[in-house]
Design brief:
The chain has 92 residues and is an all-alpha fold. The protein has three helices and no strands. The protein is elongated.
């Protein structure tokens, strides 16, 4: 049960990071609907990053609510939403 709670925390944290990236990086030519996309991308990236963080840091006792899981989720969500907001949008 503790791992499911941790994964839920990752999802919420990723969605909040996506909203934070929208507030930090402003795009004047932005169309409507990017808020939902950023929240979904941040949540997805946080789950993937959390799994990677748990897998690389905690080998013998993997728990979703751990330093590696939370740090991995936060870092990967920030990276993916930043790439979407700044990097990918300027290349197109």
């Amino acid at each position: 049960m503790q791992n499911w709670i941790g994964i839920g925390i990752w999802i919420v944290m990723g969605a909040v990071i996506g909203l934070g990236m929208k507030a930090i990086i402003r795009r004047p030519e932005e169309t409507q609907g990017h808020t939902i996309v950023l929240m979904a991308l941040g949540a997805f990236a946080a789950v993937i990053g959390g799994m990677l963080g748990v897998g690389t840091v905690h080998l013998y006792e993997p728990l979703a609510i751990s330093i590696g899981g939370m740090a991995g989720a936060a870092l990967f969500a920030v990276l993916m939403t930043w790439v979407y907001r700044w990097g990918l949008r300027t290349l197109i």
